[in-house]
Amino acid sequence: IYSMGVSGLYSAIPPKSTLYKRLQQEKAFNTLMVYLFPYGGGIFRFFEIEDDDVEEILEWMIESNQDTLGSESEARHWINEFQSELERTRNLYPGIEDRRALLEKSAHEIEKRLVQLSRSQGKDTTEFVNRLMFGDQIASNLVQLEDTLGLVSLALVQEGAIILREVEPEMLFTRDEGRQEWYLDQFQG
Asked: Closest by alpha carbon to 139, among 7, 40, 6, 11?
């Protein structure tokens, strides 16, 4: 899953997990994912941050989404379901909480450089690179927000890994160009 605001944040969600299926089918789950995704070092760690911070975020989210989550008690039910599903996924897929990446203020620049590189090699992979960076699926279009939640399918991740393995990071960015060094570090990460 990819979430975009100022930065690109990626987190693996196993396609065979119940969490993934519920994200596709349940508007409340989709809403919770979109709103909670950027906090706590990844969605699987959201409920590990300070209790006061968790509560403040949840209260804001509940207030902002009464049409989707319902009353306070209904919203708390959904939140408990969501938290249980996150824990179930962590238990069934050990280490999933660490399968994440952040492109801090660099996703669009990296996308631009990958497209430029492909064009210089006589290819036009604009659409492929865009789908790889920002998702080839949307979480059922259930939620419309300023931030987006895109799904990068497993097949696309695998195809992208094969292609990106061939890209020398220094072909995209050099270390001696100021801001370019930041983008290089982000791309390598």
From this structure: 11
